[in-house]
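Structure in, sequence out. Go:
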C-alpha cells in the first residue's frame, strides 16, 4: 500500500524561487487530494497508479486555482504587482502543463481526456456562478452548490474508475467533505469584513434582507459597522455552524456505510478537524 506523500512530491513543481519571491500561490488542495488517494488505493488495479493520478489532479487543480487569483483588470502599473500578476498566469499554465506531461509520458491518454473534460465543466460552472453574481441572482443555496461543484469536478471525474460500492459512495463522500471544508472556511471568512463580499453570508442577506440592506451590501464603500450589524441580525455565524453540524452528521452516516474498515478509519481521521472544531464551540451549537 502506497504511503501518502503527494504534497512533498508536488514541491518540485511549486517551490521555484521566481514564484516564491514574486507572487503567492493558493493553498494546496490537501483534503481532496488525500480523499482521492485513499479511494484509489482501495482498488488493486489502480493502487499502482494512485500516486500518479492524484499528483496530476492536484497539479491541475492548483493551476486552476492559481489562475483564479489573477486580477480581472491589468490596470495596476506598479512593477511588483504587475510581475506578481504575470507570474500567476505563468505558474497556472505551468502546473496545467505538468499534469499533461506526467500522464502523457506514462501513456495515460484516457485520463488526460477525462481530466480535460472535467476542466471544461469547471469553467462552465464558473461562468454560471459569475453570471449569477453579476446579475445579483445568486442565492446562498446556489453559492454552496456551485462552489462545491466547482471544487469537486476534477476529483469527481474518477467516479467511473472506482471499484464496487466505492463507485457509488465516492461522489457523495467527496461532496460532503468539500461542503464541510467550505462551511468551515465561511465561518472564519465573516470575521474579516474585507472578505465578506460574495460569501455565503453576503448572499444570504441579499436574498432575505430589505431593499435598504441590500443597497448597503452592494455599495462601493463597505461600512464595517453596518455589515457587522447585519451579520448579527441574520444570525449568520449560528446558521453556518448549523449547516456545518448537519453536514458532518450526514457525512459520518455515509462513511459508516463503506465496506472497508481501513477506508472508514482514514476518512474519520480526515474529518477530525471539523469534529474538533465543533467540539470547541459547543455553546454555539447548543444555541442553534
Amino acid at each position: 500500500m502506497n504511503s501518502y506523500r503527494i504534497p512533498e512530491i508536488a514541491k518540485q513543481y511549486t517551490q521555484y524561487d521566481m514564484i516564491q519571491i514574486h507572487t503567492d500561490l493558493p493553498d494546496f488542495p490537501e483534503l481532496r487530494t488525500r480523499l482521492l488517494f485513499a479511494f484509489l488505493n482501495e482498488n488493486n488495479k489502480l493502487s499502482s497508479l494512485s500516486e500518479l493520478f492524484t499528483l496530476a489532479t492536484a497539479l491541475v487543480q492548483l493551476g486552476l486555482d492559481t489562475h483564479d487569483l489573477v486580477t480581472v483588470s491589468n490596470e495596476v502599473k506598479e512593477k511588483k504587482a504587475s510581475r506578481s500578476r504575470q507570474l500567476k498566469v505563468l505558474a497556472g499554465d505551468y502546473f496545467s502543463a505538468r499534469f499533461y506531461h506526467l500522464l502523457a509520458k506514462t501513456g495515460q491518454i484516457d485520463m488526460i481526456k477525462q481530466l480535460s473534460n472535467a476542466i471544461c465543466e469547471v469553467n462552465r460552472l464558473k461562468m454560471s456562478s459569475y453570471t449569477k453574481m453579476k446579475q445579483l441572482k445568486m442565492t446562498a443555496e446556489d453559492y454552496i452548490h456551485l462552489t462545491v461543484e466547482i471544487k469537486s469536478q476534477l476529483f469527481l471525474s474518477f467516479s467511473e474508475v472506482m471499484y464496487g460500492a466505492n463507485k457509488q459512495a465516492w461522489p457523495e463522500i467527496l461532496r460532503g467533505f468539500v461542503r464541510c471544508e467550505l462551511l468551515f472556511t465561511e465561518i472564519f471568512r465573516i470575521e474579516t469584513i474585507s472578505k465578506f463580499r460574495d460569501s455565503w453570508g453576503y448572499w444570504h442577506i441579499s436574498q432575505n434582507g430589505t431593499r435598504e440592506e441590500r443597497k448597503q451590501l452592494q455599495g462601493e464603500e463597505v461600512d464595517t459597522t453596518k455589515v457587522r450589524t447585519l451579520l448579527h441580525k441574520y444570525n449568520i455565524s449560528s446558521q453556518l455552524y448549523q449547516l456545518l453540524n448537519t453536514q458532518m452528521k450526514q457525512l459520518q452516516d455515509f462513511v459508516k456505510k463503506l465496506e472497508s474498515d481501513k477506508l472508514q478509519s482514514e476518512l474519520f481521521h480526515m474529518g477530525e478537524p471539523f469534529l474538533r472544531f465543533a467540539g470547541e464551540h459547543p455553546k454555539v451549537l447548543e444555541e442553534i
